[in-house]
Specification:
- This protein is α/β, with parallel strands linked by helices.
- The chain is about 30% helix and about 25% strand.
């Protein structure tokens, strides 16, 4: 039997708490027991329609339908895939085609659809993919439901990786993987049913939203308040307002969201929000900028925010969601290292603050059932402050991916998986310098794109968090070859399109990057807002930016 599902059912019966959705217009609270009852009705109908184990995908806007839909799939012994919702910048036809392609890769048994995506049923039918409307599942009376037992090594989640469109792949997460990571997260965060309230806007197709927020709350039996990303982006003040009104103590988001939140808190009069009960504000899913989190805690202090609530973490879908976390009682720690030693010798040598340094947040300690190590290019295990490839093994670590070419296994003979990041270890904590595939090699230096991007984003006129650094090959084209001798920077600006503005901003970005990084970009491209390619979860897509650079004169 699945300990993960057993616990969800048990918590639904014993917890007095539940899920609140519909803010800010029409909030609706459902107890976890009501969610379970709805899920059992859904499951009864799904089983009557022939679902027994199999693979279920979900696409709906109402979390009041999505959450019991996912639980119903697990009650039937099936796995769950949360489909990426289309964003404003995505072509609807391209999204439809890529979604159908991903569903074929998963070999889905049925797609559960809810508003506003019910019209997608016609395209699915034309593609020969079964679909079920969530609205048609809730008509059954409350009857005892004998769930299908899932084994620990059965699939529980097929997590589509960020940006997986043309060549989708899904991480194969078992019930045992989920149980391991969830129990670690709850223990590391000391999450308690009688104390904590989770507030989240992170989408459920993102592992941070699905596992780090929803499933932690369900597994611990704590209250959860959930809104959509569209609600948050349209009204950034909604996030702190919900934390304040509901007594939120746990939340999570990528770095860019904390930059928006810091500005919101800074603009609001002191005491507008009551953030005094915040214990854990997880920052993960993309590189963490210490300056952003400093701005967040400074602005938040005016609203009672405890500075120690900032929890820098490191995770990957290959290990469900989180591998390392800071301790709840610790304030954010920043490692200041010599830039030249880092870039030329792959060593993180600590130095005082000043010019010629790089600042990295410490991302906490490995969770109980996770083991990490850092390897050199020749396979040697490295010591403290030596930069290399980060590998992981342990209970949450996946066996591999599901791709268009079939299953792909990841662990080596000893269970280690390379997660594609470069970093180092210091005093038991881990630091991530950047993605292995994105490092720019210039005159014997390893330059990390995030450093360039933060420098460019600091230029007046560049939209915060909307800069991408792309490496160039020797002939000046964007590529991934070994002749990495230059780089370009793409930035968004609200004034883009005016030749004088674009030229001045490109020069300012060039000079700022040259001063901060010690290298001048070969090209700076200024673009209008909402042009830079991003994943559905909001991450910048450097590989797609290379294509944009090629296609733009």
């Amino acid at each position: 039997m699945s300990r993960f599902v057993d616990n969800l059912v048990e918590q639904a019966h014993v917890s007095p708490h539940g899920l609140t959705t519909g803010e800010p217009v029409s909030p609706v609270r459902r107890s976890w027991r009501e969610v379970l009852r709805t899920a059992e009705r859904y499951a009864s109908r799904l089983r009557a329609d022939g679902l027994q184990k199999g693979r279920v995908a979900i696409l709906a806007g109402d979390l009041g339908q999505v959450v019991p839909g996912a639980l119903a799939a697990w009650l039937c012994g099936a796995s769950v895939t949360m489909l990426h919702e289309p964003t404003r910048r995505v072509d609807p036809v391209e999204w439809q085609d890529s979604t159908i392609h991903a569903l074929r890769v998963i070999d889905v048994s049925t797609v559960l659809l809810g508003p506003p995506f019910e019209p997608f049923a016609a395209a699915l039918a034309a593609a020969g993919i079964p679909a079920t409307l969530l609205s048609e599942l809730d008509g059954e009376p409350d009857l005892p439901f004998d769930r299908t037992a899932a084994a620990e090594d059965d699939l529980a989640l097929l997590q589509l990786t960020s940006g997986s469109t043309a060549e989708p792949k899904a991480v194969r997460i078992t019930h045992a993987n989920l149980w391991s990571n969830l129990t670690d997260l709850i223990a590391a965060g000391d999450v308690r049913r009688d104390r904590d309230v989770t507030v989240s806007w992170v989408p459920l197709f993102h592992d941070m939203g699905m596992v780090g927020c929803l499933l932690v709350a369900m597994s611990a039996g704590t209250p959860m308040v959930s809104v959509t990303p569209a609600d948050f982006l349209a009204h950034p003040g909604l996030w702190p307002d919900l934390l304040s009104r509901y007594g939120g103590s746990v939340t999570a988001a990528p770095n860019f969201a904390y930059a928006l939140l810091a500005r919101q808190l800074d603009r609001a009069p002191a005491g507008t929000y009551d953030l005094s009960r915040m214990r854990i504000a997880i920052n993960g899913g993309e590189p963490i900028d210490p300056a952003t989190m400093d701005a967040f805690t400074t602005a938040g202090a005016r609203h009672g925010l405890p500075p120690e609530c900032v929890n820098c973490s490191y995770g990957a879908a290959e290990s469900v969601v989180v591998m390392t976390m800071s301790r709840p009682e610790d304030v954010m720690a920043v490692d200041v290292v010599d830039a030249v030693e880092l870039e030329k010798n792959d060593r993180a040598v600590p130095v005082p603050e000043g010019p010629g340094v790089r600042r990295f947040p410490l991302l906490g300690y490995p969770l109980e059932h996770v083991e990490l190590r850092v390897l050199a290019a020749d396979g040697r295990v490295l010591g403290e402050r030596e930069v290399g490839a980060i590998q992981v093994r342990g209970g949450p670590v996946t066996a591999g991916y599901l791709t268009a070419d079939g299953p792909v296994d990841l662990p080596d003979a000893d269970g280690w998986v390379d997660v594609g990041d470069l970093g180092y270890r210091v005093d038991g904590q881990y630091v991530v310098c950047g993605r292995t595939k994105d490092v720019i090699i210039l005159a014997g230096r390893n330059i990390y794109p995030t450093d360039i991007e933060r420098s460019a984003s600091a230029v007046a006129g560049v939209r915060t968090g909307n800069a991408i650094a792309v490496r160039l090959t020797a002939d000046g084209t964007a590529g991934t070859g070994v002749e990495r001798e230059s780089f370009a920077v793409l930035v968004e600006s609200r004034g883009a399109g005016d030749p004088g503005h674009d030229a001045a901003l490109a020069l300012a970005v060039t000079e700022r990057v040259a001063a901060d990084i010690g290298a001048r970009p070969a090209r700076v491209l200024v673009l209008p807002p909402s042009t830079l390619p991003k994943t559905p979860a909001g991450k910048l897509r450097r590989s797609a930016a290379r294509d944009l650079l090629r296609d733009t004169p």
